[in-house]
Amino acid sequence: MISGSPPDTTASKPYVTWKKPCILLTNDDGINSEGLWAAYDALQEISDVVICAPATQQSAVGRSLSIFEPLRVNTVNRGDITAYAVGGKPTDSVILALFALGVKPDLIVSGINIGENLSYEAITTSGTVGAALEAANHGYPAVAFSLQIEDQKEKFEDAKNLVDRFFETKGVIRYVISQIIEKGFPSFTHVINVNIPSVITGGYEITHLAEHLFITGVEKRLDPRGKPYYWINGPLVTDAPEGTDVHAIHKGNISVTPITLDCTAYAGTDELRKLFSS
Questions:
Q1: Contact 107/118 with Cβ under 8 angstroms?
Q2: pTM, 2 dp
Q3: How far is Cα 41 from Cα 48, in angstroms, rounded to an integer?
Q4: Is-contact 62 126, C-beta < 8 A?
Q5: pLDDT tens digit sequence for 180-196
Q6: Which residues are within 8 A (CB) of 43 and not within 5 positions of it... i.e. 6 or more apart?
Q7: For residue 202, which of 19, 67, 160, 225 sits 20 to 30 Å off, Cα-Cα?
C-alpha cells in the first residue's frame, strides 16, 4: 500500500520532511532498454528507484518462470546508477528482487515497454504485464507502462530514435505514479495497465480490455534446403468498440485499465452448475 504523500509546498503550512517511497522498476525488453532507463528518469525525482530487470530481451514470455535452471544476478552500472540484471525472465526479476536481494518496495513499476500491451491476448502474453501480475501476486501494487509504436520493427531496433516520444511518456509516468503516491492505489485492482499512444492527442481514459490486438496469421517460408519453417505474424487490429483500450489508443488517448488477478468467470458459474447438476 502506498502510504507516503508528496510534500505540501503551500506557504500556510510548516515544512515537513517527506520520505520518498521505494519503487522496484523492471521490464521485459531487458536491462539495456532505453525504455527502462526513460522510466527511471521519470521516477527518480519522486521516489527511490531500484532496478532489477532481465539481462536480455524477454518479450512475450508472460508470467513464465525459470524453474529448471539456476538464475544468476549481475550488477550493471550506468553512470553512478547500479542496477541488477537477472539471467531470466521478468517474473524471475521480480521474485529475486523481493526474496533474494531484499528489496522492500512500496510500488512496482514495469516498463516502459516498446510496443503497446492491449487486449486480452496481449496482457496474457506480455512479459511487461506478467512482471506486474507477479508483483501483485505477492501483495504489491503494480503499474505497467507501454508505448505504442508505429512500426513493429521499432521494437527490435535501437530505441534511441524514440527519444522524442520518451520525453512525453516520462511526463505520463511521473503524473500517474504521483497520483498513486498521493491518493493511494485503487481498491479491487491488482495491476494498472497504462498504454500511451505514439502521438497523444487526448487525455486519460479509463478503459476495459478489447478482445484482440493482432489479426493472427502464420507465414510459411523455406530454408536453403527446401524445408519449411514458420513465422507467427499478422497486422494489428485497427479499432475496437468504444471504451476499450484499443479504441482509446487509436483516438490518441492514454489508456488506463484496471486489471485483477482473479480470472474467474463469475457470470458463467450458474450455467456451469446446471451442466454438472444431477
A1: no
A2: 0.89
A3: 11
A4: yes
A5: 999 999 999 999 999 99
A6: 23, 25, 49, 109, 173, 174, 177
A7: 160
